[in-house]
Amino acid sequence: MARHPALASLLVALACACTTSFEADQLRARPDATLDAADATPDLGDGSDASPDVASACGGENAPCCESGAAPSPCNAGLVCQGGVCARCAPGRTACGGFCVDTDINVSHCGACGNVCPEGYSCSGGGCLLSCATGLTVCGAVCAQTGSDPMHCGRCRAPCTYANATGTCTGGVCAFGRCGAGFGDCDSDTSNGCETNTRTDVNNCGACGVRCAPTRASAAVCDAGVCRVVTCAAGYGDCDQDASNGCEVDLSTNAANCGACDTLCSAGGACVAGVCRVSTSACAAGTADCVAATAGCETSTATDLANCGACGNACSLPHATSTCAMGACAVASCAAGFADCDAMADSGCEADTRTSLADCGACGRACAPANATGVCAMGACAIGACNAGFADCNRDAADGCEVDLRTSATNCGACASACNAANGVGACVAGRCAVGTCNAGFADCDGNASNGCEVNTQTSAANCSACGAMCAFANATATCAGATCGLGPCATGFADCDRNPANGCEAAVNSDPRNCGGCGRICSSGQVCSTSECRSGCTSGTTLCGSSCVNAQSDARNCGACGNQCSVRPLSHATPVCRSAVCGYACTQNYLDCNAQGGDGCEVNIGTDANNCGACGRRCTGGPNVFVVGCAMGTCRLSCNLGWADCDRAAANGCEVFPGNDRNNCGSCGHRCATGQSCALGFCV
User: Fold this and answer.
1) How many angstroms separate the CA atoms of 415 and 394, rounded?
2) Averaged in consecutive runs of 10 residues, what is the pLDDT profile of the chain (685 residues)?
3) DSSP-derived secondary structure for 233-279
4) Fewest Cβ atoms nearer than 10 Å: which of 165, 301, 449, 541?
5) Would you say the C-alpha torsion 553, 557, 560, 563 has a positive or negative sign?
6) How much of the chain is helix, strand and coil, in % rounded to 5?
7) Is the dihedral of CA 145, 150, 152, 154 positive or negative?
């Protein structure tokens, strides 16, 4: 059934109340809420069934709504009344209480509908945040002035505190303030604050640096910052109760405080050893009243060991038998093993001649072995320990540690470890054997002290007259005789026709028509030299280049074509070669092309390069107790730390033996101690 548009609008208006005026009031009260302006007015059609009925249109999307007093007519959940029509909120907004709000910033609906932020807070990102005045920083639940707040100094939750002290914050920088009552910064280290309790610390009593140590007091305390004497040393008293002068009274002699404070001797009496006696002035010279039970001057202070010179002054000298002579204690005799070396009776026999380094065995006999720390045992001087780099190789303490292991060629690094050099003289350098000098005609070319001067420079073609002076000739072997290079046999197919050794075997007799098959053998006109014979033409496999038949597959002067001469860079340790009609190069003895870049030739000497020792990529690495690693003659060589040795000649485990205590290599590699013996300081004992 069709419905009239006007009738449908009337029914909807009666069922729904438009709240435009109410929404506007709410928006004015909450400026952070907005009303979407989209046109949500529904199209009711022309009387067709598309128009909604009253029951379904009320609160539905696009349904009209009308104003009804002050309360908004209900729109379905998720819809608001906008422009008189129930509509959905624009993207980014949420329907809350009939309004479209941004829950990221709305303080009444922060993060969710109905979540109201407290007073003083703002909404940001859907969360309530404390809003602080200009110049203040949000620190948790408070607004802090980080430039001066001692609890948030420079940044939030950065308290400016010190132990037992106040801190100040200025310009965001924490500074030490002042100590609390009864405390002091006595170590001048503000990081631990005022670490000292000046009320109880006897070393800082009342203030830093004020030490509570009264004179002649055996015990003292710091009480509330005031130094007090607890007990005095025997024979003394703190009779004025003033700690500043300590235990000021000698109770053994003070007649006003004899034996105890405020104990007064009678008129004319004297205090002797804390007991009131007859005054000394009343006794004859050399006598005194020393016995309380007597009445008189009964004691001879001139000779009495118990009262020598005065009552109570007993003669008891250290390590001595004492005597009293003319009122003075003296040494009668010394105990065994002691002596009176300072000639002062008060110290008795002060020197223990059994252990004293200054008076070992007798007064004035110092125990100070050369290059060593001495020890006095039972009155005899011995070596305690040698100084670094020295040793007692002769076992005689009289000359101390007489050997310098750093320089001694007979005791290099350890006793009896001699440095010998084949064909030369050994030397000891920093405790390691080295070659000192070589005999005439020999040289140490590999730098390895173990094989000495291993090269005969008179005959070595690789080191002729000097290390590295290699003899080499074109197309020939070289010889060395009398330290002079000589031309050896020529290579096959070559001869020395000009008798000039400088250019080696310069003539190619297998192809040179002027020296065909031998020097001076000239081919006739029209002939060529092929395989060392004059022929009318070249043999199979050779090519005529000029007047010579050459193998273009292998001839370095005509490689692949006549006149195409192969060459290498000077000083590249390589010689040019032709292989399969392509120019290349061959490395000279001890050199290899390890970087595979032909431009620099054979750049590595595998005889000396520690990173390519004997072969490309074979790196010499050190092991335990190794001082330095090197390469010599293609073999890794080790230099050991002082006192160590490479006895197995295996670089992988370094210098594995300490000859100072190894009974299988005692003093030197291979020196084995006999059964029952051990090795100490390089000696079998």
Assistant:
1) 9
2) 38 38 36 39 35 51 62 72 85 88 90 87 84 83 86 90 90 90 92 93 94 93 94 94 92 91 81 78 78 72 89 90 91 93 90 94 93 92 89 90 92 87 90 89 85 92 87 88 92 91 88 91 88 85 83 89 87 85 86 84 87 89 78 78 82 84 86 84 75
3) PTTEE-TT--GGG-S-EETTT-TTSSSSTT-PPPTTEEEETTEEEE-
4) 541
5) negative
6) 10, 30, 65
7) positive
From CA 304, how far away is CA 396, in angstroms rounded?
51
Is residue 582 a contact partner of residue 590, using CB atoms and an 8 Å limit? Answer: no
In one-letter notation, the amino acid at residue 370 is A
Element counts in the chain: helices (H) and strands (E): 3, 49
Q: 585 with 569: CB under 8 angstroms?
A: no
d(CA 657, CA 666): 9
In terms of phi and psi (left: phi > 0; alpha: psi -120 to 50; beta: otherwise), the region of 192 is alpha
Tell me, what amino acid is at 16?
A: C
Cα Rg for the chain, rounded, in angstroms?
A: 56
Question: What is the rounded end-to-end Cα distance, in angstroms, of the chain?
Answer: 130
**604: which residues sit within 8 A by CB, 6+ positions away?**
591, 592, 593, 594, 595, 612, 616
* Structural element, H or E, at residue 29: helix 20-29
DSSP state of 64: B
Neighbours of 163 (CB within 10 A): 14
What is the amino acid identity at position 535?
A: R
What is the rounded CA–CA span in Å between residue 589 and residue 35?
95
Residue reference for tokens 């399969």: 580
CA 172 to chain centre: 35
User: DSSP for 409-426?
Assistant: SSSSSSTT-----TTEEE
Paired sense of beta strands 127-130 and 137-139, if any: unpaired
Among 283, 288, 324, 284, smallest CA distance to 303 is for 324
Cβ count near 674 (within 10 Å): 7
**In this structure, are residues 17 and 68 in contact, taking their beta carbons and an 8 Å threshold?**
yes
Q: Which two tokens stand for residue 534?
A: 């004059």
Burial class, 482, CB count within 10 angstroms (exposed 0-12 / middle 13-18 / buried 19+): exposed
Secondary structure of 638-676 as H, E, C letters: EEECCCCECCCCCHHHCCCECCCCCCCCCCCCCCCCCCC
Phi-psi group of 204: left, alpha or beta (phi > 0 → left; psi -120 to 50 → alpha; rest → beta): beta
pTM for this model (two decimals): 0.39
